[in-house]
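USER:
Before I trust my own judgement here, I would like a peer's view. Write it directly below this note and I will take it from there.

ASSISTANT:
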Amino acid sequence: MLIAKVVLAAGQSSRFDGCKLIADVGLGQTMIERAVEVLQALDDSPVYVVTGKWHAEVVQALSGHSNIYIIENKRWDDGLGVSIAVASQALSKHPAYNGILFMLADQVELKTQDLAALVTGFTRESTRWCANYGERLGVPAIFPAVDLSKLTSLTSDKGAQQLLRSSSEVVNTINLSSASVDIDTQQQLSNFIAKHELKYTKSN
């Protein structure tokens, strides 16, 4: 079972006042590096990073990492759905993949074991799998290869929500409250760093 791993990192960071993707999220690690490394720890397959507004900055931040493929979405301002479509179009050239795992670069609370739980479910039953935030469904999510044509036709800013809410297809979920945590502002970043520095101090 081969699953493509995709980090969606094409947004504008409009509320952050700068490029949040290269912001230090603690221990000298940038946000985009953290996302990539969480996915890399799953297995030895490549990680695909969809860039957009901050393409050059992300490429620079990841320059020291290997086994990464950059997919530039030049229509990044058309919304998340387009980023998913652009990634899916690129991956459609690799028929060996059984599915595609998507996560957002700013989902800073996600850990490799969270994603591994989705992969385990997908390996057992190759249908749509996603996180249940408690109030809604969302990424990280895995879509089977049969969904490629639907993924490549996405256009809205709501990403793949319409597919996850479909009543005509099976959608399996895992409870993953950490998936609801993302970083949109400088204050949220400061809170996240403070919280994890406290955990690190207590553990040592």
In short: The two ends are 39 Å apart (CA to CA).
